[in-house]
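Exercise 7. Given the encoded structure of a 535-residue chain, write a plausible sequence.
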């Protein structure tokens, strides 16, 4: 099977079988064709050559990208994911209205067969697992923010009975608790799964096969993502050795042909080598070096501290976070954790200065220059402008060659530099937004879910770059691997309080467990003392 989109060849001569019950992680660079493959499975695209075969009567569940701002409640919306049940209930209502009692009895049996009487309870479990409180179940869809609407779409998808589940970056907009819950749900899922994700820990938790897309091909590997990385590295080393060996052999044959092709005594041997070269199956050269080589443009000056919050109360009308004290020095790399609604975005906006403090002090260093990257920056890109024009807008006097070189570091090559952002994938737009932030020479990077929409190759480059460079950053992310490798301090927001852990993610887990054990011990002692006093 082969597939083209907008004249570009995405998949060439694909031969791949996925069996019932397999759980497959689909990985590859941004813009390589992962989402297009999903659209092919869903029937929204047709193959140019060959065909896609699905089992007869297969039920497919796929997460919608948008959610209507309707008046139906969150619970009703999730239950509606079971379309067969909704259809039977509609027929039941019609039969009851027409006093067709025999038909009513039959439809009640159909609802029972569909496990319809437990539908609301199952929908409630999905909502709770994805972080919704029971008080929000009856809220209308239009009252939820974009991130919570994404969760509602996910819950509605999981509600649908399916044989094949297609999930495209389902962990975007989820906090760690919801990610752990979703991983356990997927582990218990009985159907076939194809999962697009950039979260390595999540892939390791959920899949036992990796489908790797590269160079218009899809290769299926057994094992989770960590096993794939190890095997892929070994294959590349072996391929490089084979390529080098074959190149030496080709060089010797070509040299023999060049020297003896027109000598009568050796002409037959030369012709034999020419035919051997024509028949030779060539080993491809290894081109696995990262396409990224960018650096954050170095700020001309630094301050120490760069930014401080003292006794700060943060929020809009009433404080969400109270009595915060936080200081940033050059080289600090903070990771921020907390459930949705804990105040992460509030804290980031307060640090940026776009949200004034309710009370307390925010003190900027003399040379502070913040760079803020978030989904908001991605959404606000001028889609009619190309990457080059975005940078020229920031610095009209900049040399075009230098701008092209800078964009090349973010893997915007050739015609892409002058391609409108409207034609980019979500990951390519995120990469452009990050390039724009980097171009402005910040000395404090505020990153709100930077790994969302970026491919694994870009994420790994960012990790490597941040880990070795003296970049000061404050980052909201649920990517545990990223937190472990990059951050030297973890901050957790919990019930309006800020807990600070001076170490990486593993250190945070260890110390948090100790803190909770200590708090529980204190509660037990207080309860025992109270019981003794009553006695």
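Solution.
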């Amino acid at each position: 099977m082969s597939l083209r989109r907008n004249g570009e060849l995405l998949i060439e001569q694909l031969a791949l079988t996925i069996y019932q019950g397999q759980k497959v992680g689909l990985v590859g660079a941004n813009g390589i064709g992962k989402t297009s493959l999903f659209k092919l499975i869903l029937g929204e695209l047709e193959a140019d050559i060959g065909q896609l075969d699905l089992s007869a009567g297969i039920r497919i569940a796929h997460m919608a990208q948008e959610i209507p701002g309707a008046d139906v409640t969150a619970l009703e919306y999730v239950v509606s994911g079971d379309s067969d049940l909704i259809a039977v209930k509609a027929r039941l209502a019609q039969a009851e209205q027409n006093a067709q009692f025999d038909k009513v009895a039959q439809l009640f049996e159909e609802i029972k067969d569909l496990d319809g009487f437990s539908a609301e309870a199952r929908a409630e479990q999905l909502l709770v697992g994805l972080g919704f409180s029971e008080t929000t179940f009856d809220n209308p869809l239009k009252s939820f923010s974009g991130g919570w609407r994404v969760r509602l779409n996910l819950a509605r998808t999981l509600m649908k009975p399916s044989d094949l589940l297609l999930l495209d970056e389902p962990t975007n907009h989820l906090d760690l608790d919801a990610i752990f819950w979703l991983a356990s749900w997927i582990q218990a899922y009985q159907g076939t799964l194809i999962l697009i994700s950039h979260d390595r820990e999540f892939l390791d938790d959920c899949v036992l096969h990796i489908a790797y897309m590269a160079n218009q091909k899809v290769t299926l590997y057994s094992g989770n993502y960590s096993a794939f990385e190890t095997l892929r590295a070994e294959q590349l080393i072996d391929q490089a050795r084979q390529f080098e060996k074959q190149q030496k052999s080709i060089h010797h044959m070509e040299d023999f042909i060049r020297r003896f092709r027109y000598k009568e005594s050796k002409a037959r041997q030369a012709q034999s080598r020419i035919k051997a070269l024509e028949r030779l199956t060539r080993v491809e050269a290894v081109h696995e070096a990262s396409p990224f080589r960018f650096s954050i443009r170095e700020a001309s000056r630094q301050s120490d501290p760069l930014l401080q919050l003292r006794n700060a109360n943060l929020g809009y009308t009433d404080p969400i976070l109270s009595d915060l004290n936080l200081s940033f020095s050059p080289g600090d790399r903070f990771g921020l954790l907390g459930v949705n609604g804990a105040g992460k975005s509030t804290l980031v906006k307060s640090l940026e200065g776009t949200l004034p403090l309710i009370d307390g002090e925010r003190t900027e260093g003399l040379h502070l220059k913040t760079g803020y990257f978030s989904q908001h920056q991605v959404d606000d890109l001028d889609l009619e402008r190309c990457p080059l024009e975005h940078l020229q807008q920031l610095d009209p006097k900049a040399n075009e060659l230098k701008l092209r070189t800078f964009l090349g570091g973010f893997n915007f090559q050739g015609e892409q530099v002058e391609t409108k952002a409207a034609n980019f994938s979500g990951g390519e737009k995120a990469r452009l937004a990050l390039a724009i932030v980097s171009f402005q020479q910040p000395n404090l990077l505020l990153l709100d879910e930077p790994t969302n929409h970026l491919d694994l190759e870009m994420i790994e480059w960012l990790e490597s770059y941040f880990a070795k460079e003296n970049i000061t950053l404050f980052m909201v992310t649920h990517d545990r691997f990223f937190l472990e490798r990059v951050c030297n301090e973890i901050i957790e927001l919990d019930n309006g309080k800020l807990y600070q852990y001076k170490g990486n993610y593993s250190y945070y887990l260890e110390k948090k467990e100790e803190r909770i054990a200590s708090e529980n011990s204190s509660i037990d002692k207080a309860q025992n003392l109270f019981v003794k006093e009553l006695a």
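Remark. The mean pLDDT is 82. Students should compare their own answers with the one above.
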